[in-house]
Specification:
Elements (H helix, E strand, L loop, with lengths): L14 H22 L3 H13 L6 E5 L5 H9 L5 E6 L2 H10 L4 E3 L12 E7 L8 H11 E12 L5 H23 L3 H10 L4 H10 L2 E9 L4 E8 L3
Parallel strand pairs: 1-2, 1-4, 2-3, 4-5
Antiparallel strand pairs: 5-7, 6-7
Bound molecules: S-adenosylmethionine.
S-adenosylmethionine binds next to helix 1 and helix 3.
């Protein structure tokens, strides 16, 4: 059996394809997300903010912020004076973010962040890392802009390990979700979502990759029976 390296996906994540796919679904992204996840996605974002944000954080960056829901939750929970910035490389998603909340949203590639080294106390990325052309390059670039000791919080889908939950989940994820999502959005995005999640590394594997990319004190929490997972890691000093 051929083994695939974790960072060489079989699903194409070529940047322009990802940009145009999210551009096409931007108008329906929020309502479809809430519908297909039964609104649990907002609870996952709240959990990520509660678990990662500290009262002493002054500079916070939300990478691949999309329509800005996680960015907005960070801003609401942050101490007064904290600067929260969102970046994404898909303009239609960012335009929606900016319409919903008056925060700084920048059009930028997560693989080439327009910030100096060691600029941020906390970086978050919600359902974005999986879509990067090389997520290891993304992890290294995010490490560059984190101050030593700063934290990275990654919220992602994963495949549950419990065999019964996994069987139900696979049925939903392989069949129902792409069928409803592609029909409503009139794009192939939700077929892509299911394929990209199924080949995403397990939480343990991702923890190993984080350490290889210059992070330490990696911990993770599985959410909603292991459908989603939150990793929090600290930037190692060197
Ligand atoms: C599934 S959406 C997640 C949006 C948001 N974080 C949320 O919680 O709903 C994924 C986002 O990642 C963005 N993205 C993917 N690769 C990127 C990259 N290399 N640089 C910046 N944004 C990227 C896409 O444009 C899209 O808006």
């Amino acid at each position: 059996m051929a083994l695939r390296a974790p960072d060489s996906p079989t699903v194409s994540k070529e940047a322009r394809r990802i940009q145009s796919m999210f551009g096409a679904i931007a108008p329906v992204y929020d309502p479809l997300n809430h519908l297909l996840s039964l609104n649990i996605d907002q609870a996952w974002r709240r959990f990520a903010v509660r678990a990662s944000l500290r009262p002493t954080d002054r500079r916070v960056l939300d990478v691949a912020c999309g329509t800005g829901d996680l960015t907005a939750q960070l801003q609401r929970a942050a101490s007064p004076g904290t600067q929260v910035v969102g970046v994404d490389f898909c303009e239609p998603m960012l335009r929606r973010a900016a319409r919903k909340q008056p925060l700084p949203f920048l059009l930028a590639d997560g693989l080439r962040l327009p910030f100096a080294d060691r600029s941020f106390d906390l970086l978050t990325i919600g359902f974005g890392l999986r879509n990067m052309e090389s997520f290891e390059a993304g992890l290294r670039e995010m490490r560059r802009v984190l101050r030593p000791g700063g934290r990275l919080a990654i919220l992602e889908f994963t495949t549950p390990s419990n065999p019964i939950i996994r069987a139900v989940y696979l049925l939903y994820f392989r069949r129902l979700l792409p069928a409803i999502g592609n029909l409503v959005s009139r794009s192939e995005a939700y077929g892509y979502l299911s394929r990209s999640v199924l080949e995403w590394p397990s939480p343990r594997e991702l923890a190993r990759i984080l350490k290889r990319c210059g992070y330490r004190r990696v911990r993770h929490a599985e959410l909603s029976l292991g459908i989603a997972v939150l990793h929090i890691a600290e930037r190692a000093p060197r």
